[in-house]
Specification:
Number of strands of chain A: 0
Helix content of chain B: 55-70%
Strand content of chain B: under 5%
Radius of gyration of chain B: 25 Å
Number of strands of chain B: 2
Order of helices and strands of chain B: HEEHHHHHHHHH
Largest interface: A-B, 49 and 42 residues
Number of helices of chain B: 10
Structural class of chain B: mainly alpha
Strand order of the largest sheet of chain B: 1-2
Helix content of chain A: over 70%
Structural class of chain A: mainly alpha
Distance between the termini of chain A: 19 Å
Strand content of chain A: under 5%
Oligomer: heterodimer
Distance between the termini of chain B: 32 Å
Shape of chain A: globular
Shape of chain B: globular
Number of helices of chain A: 13
Radius of gyration of chain A: 24 Å
Chain lengths: 336, 317
């Protein structure tokens, strides 16, 4: 199995659990620190909307029991952790009796699709641009044109999203600017639906790709410049290999390794940015669900989605960390 | 005696060859880095805009209902349902549907955003310096613990937890927001400081100080910190930028101080009022422009400081 040692795997898995535990603890503590208790706030809000929710009395009873408000803090904490581990995230407050897990299950595919595709595209494009910029033998014309693709790096993703909606959605009407798909379509694996989804997802994905590309490009350029001085490149040239082969198979292949680490580290930021992009585009993923639950003060949903996002991010980082020794065996030798 | 590492100007003791004395290039100073200066200029413009702006323009116009609603900026005429709205100099950047003047909102909001960012970054940086120096200098189990916690903290999606925290603390003031942001502002400086301390710990002058019996704290403050200043400044600049971004993201979701028209809150109100679809580009356009200027400026400062600190990055000047 490549360079995977038992020690490495154990370390990474332990880190995974530590991260998830830390994140969920922070989410747990903060509401308890804020003045007033969440259940009382929920109850008063429900009383204000009297008649809107059936069985409100039973709901309050269940919540008091579930939150264990009579019990001391550590009892609540243990119950909370237990609930997280069994994925019992409770009921949504604003859409009772729907469970939080069901709502998340509906939104998760959209977020995974958008974020997954956008991140992969951005990584590939950004690293390619950076590699071309850092390579000595790229034609001058390319070197002057390419930096323009990176002009949007400093704009936060959601602000560029607003700009895109205005220009492309509102102005030029090339793309729809909200929702994940049009209405009145057969949902399923037919071409009409899939093309509609792609049409709706282009602007959000484009926003994420354009703003995060610069980060990869900058790093890759630096890595290429330092890889340029390696001996094996001189050997490759002496062997008479074609420049393209040297570029891709020798230089890029080695320079991209730290970028993979950077990908794992920046995943948290990427996820945060995509939450806002979904909010701007009303894209029916976890991010938009998150925003809606904030507006509806649906605290269980907020907690549940927060936890799911932390879990998903940490899992992805773990997978990347476990794949990394297979592509770069050097990392297991560094520990000695 | 502090050992300081930086390159000084060219010396003037050049042996005479009978020709005119060589000119000394006084612009060689590494601190006169082009990126650093242009970045600082941009940020300075925003700061001056916020500080001196109220002297020239009435910031009371940033209050709700103080100007005509939905006016476009000066020189722009918008026609809606046959009614012409003509921009005028009374509201050079237009107004929004709450009656706030955009120029006044920017003058009030831009310093606020900078303040939040700087405050959160300073708090995070302080924690980072303390933890990083401790971890790097002491080594051992303290190092392992701090490093592991910092690494785990970086992996947690910061904005998600920030949103969760802010959603509960409904009455958010500036200081509360800065404290919330500082929760995630400390891991990066910690890692950076730790790496720096590990490098500097092996230097000759630090060894000398250790052999002379100087206590560790004094070594850290007198010997190491002055040499880490360019890196600390670059890290601080990046930190401020990240915090301003996080703050405006939180505000754009509506989780910011509701009574002050900070840049993020202005964008939030514009989204709430569907300003994008109503064509009122000035409402969200100018705050975005201000934020972009701030981010570009801070990014240039950070890159410039990186080049100052690491001569290898400087390239041909």
């Amino acid at each position: 199995m490549g360079g995977l040692t038992k020690e490495y795997v154990i370390r990474r898995v332990a880190m995974f659990f530590l991260t998830v535990w830390l994140g969920s603890t922070v989410i747990f503590i903060i509401p308890r620190l804020a003045p007033g208790d969440p259940v009382a706030a929920m109850v008063s809000r429900m009383i204000n909307q009297a008649g809107y929710i059936e069985n409100s009395a039973e709901l309050i009873e269940t919540w008091r029991a579930k939150f264990g408000l009579d019990g001391p803090m550590y009892v609540q904490y243990v119950k909370y952790l237990w609930g997280l581990m069994t994925f019992d995230l409770g009921y949504s407050l604003s859409q009772f009796p729907q469970t939080v897990t069901a709502a998340i299950a509906r939104g998760m595919p959209w977020t995974l699709g958008l974020l997954g595709i956008a991140t992969v595209l951005s990584f590939i494009l950004g690293n390619t641009v950076g590699a071309l910029l850092g390579w000595r033998r790229t034609p001058k014309t390319l070197k002057t044109v390419l930096p323009f693709t990176l002009t949007f790096t400093s704009i936060p993703a959601f602000m560029l999203g607003i700009l895109f909606i205005y220009i492309f959605g509102f102005g030029l009407r090339w793309f729809p600017f909200s929702r994940g798909h049009g209405s009145g379509l057969d949902i399923g694996w037919n071409w009409e639906f899939i093309s509609n989804v792609i049409h709706h997802g282009t602007l959000p994905a484009l926003t994420i790709v354009v703003t995060t590309m610069g980060f990869w490009a900058l790093g890759m350029r630096g890595m290429m410049i330092s890889t340029d001085q390696e001996d094996f490149l001189i050997l490759a040239q002496a062997k008479g290999l074609s420049p393209a082969w040297i570029f891709w198979r020798y230089a890029v292949r080695n320079a991209v390794l730290p970028q993979v680490t950077a990908l794992a580290l920046s995943l948290g930021t990427l996820v945060g940015g995509s939450v806002l992009v979904e909010y701007i585009f009303a894209y029916p993923g976890l991010g938009y669900l998150f925003y809606q639950s904030i507006v509806n003060m649906d605290y269980t949903m907020i907690q549940g989605i927060g936890f799911m996002i932390i879990l998903a991010t940490s899992t992805t980082v773990l997978i990347i960390d476990l794949i990394y020794p297979i592509i770069d065996p050097r990392i297991t030798y560094q520990k000695k | 005696m502090m050992a300081v590492e930086n390159d000084l100007q060219a010396n003037t003791d050049i042996p005479s060859t009978g020709k005119a004395p060589l000119k000394v290039n006084r612009w060689d100073n590494p601190w006169l880095n082009r990126k650093f200066l242009s970045g600082s200029a941009l940020v300075l413009v925003i700061i001056l805009f916020g500080l001196l702006g109220p002297l020239f323009w009435d910031t009371k116009l940033a209050r709700v209902g103080s100007a005509e609603l939905n006016m476009p900026p000066v020189g722009v005429t918008v026609e809606v349902d046959g009614v012409k709205y003509v921009g005028s100099m009374t509201n050079p950047l237009g107004t929004e549907s709450n009656g706030r003047d955009i120029l006044a909102s920017l003058m009030v909001g831009a310093p606020m955003s900078l303040q939040i960012g700087i405050l959160a970054a300073v708090i995070g940086m302080s924690i980072g310096v303390v933890l990083g120096c401790t971890a790097g200098y002491l080594g051992g189990w303290a190092d392992s613990v701090i490093r592991t916690v910092a690494d785990a903290w970086i992996t947690i999606p910061a904005l998600t937890v920030l949103i969760t925290m802010a959603a509960y603390v409904r009455q958010i003031e500036l200081s509360t927001m800065a404290l919330i942001l500082a929760v995630f502002a400390w891991p990066q400086p910690t890692r950076l400081m730790r790496a720096q301390v590990l490098t500097l710990r092996e230097r000759g002058y630090v060894r000398m100080a250790q052999l002379s019996g100087v206590p560790p704290l004094k070594i850290m403050i007198q010997e190491m910190v002055p040499n880490m200043l360019p890196w600390m400044a670059a890290s601080l600049s990046g930190n401020i930028s990240a915090n301003i971004l996080a703050a405006s993201s939180l505000e754009a979701l509506g989780l910011g101080p509701t009574r002050i028209p900070t840049l993020g809150m202005t964008i939030y109100y514009s989204i709430r009022a569907a300003a994008i679809l109503r064509g009122m580009w000035w409402w969200w356009g100018f705050p975005i422009l201000t934020l972009v200027i701030i981010f570009v400026g801070l990014f240039l400062i950070a890159t410039g400081l990186d080049e100052i600190a690491n001569p290898r990055l400087r390239g041909v000047q």
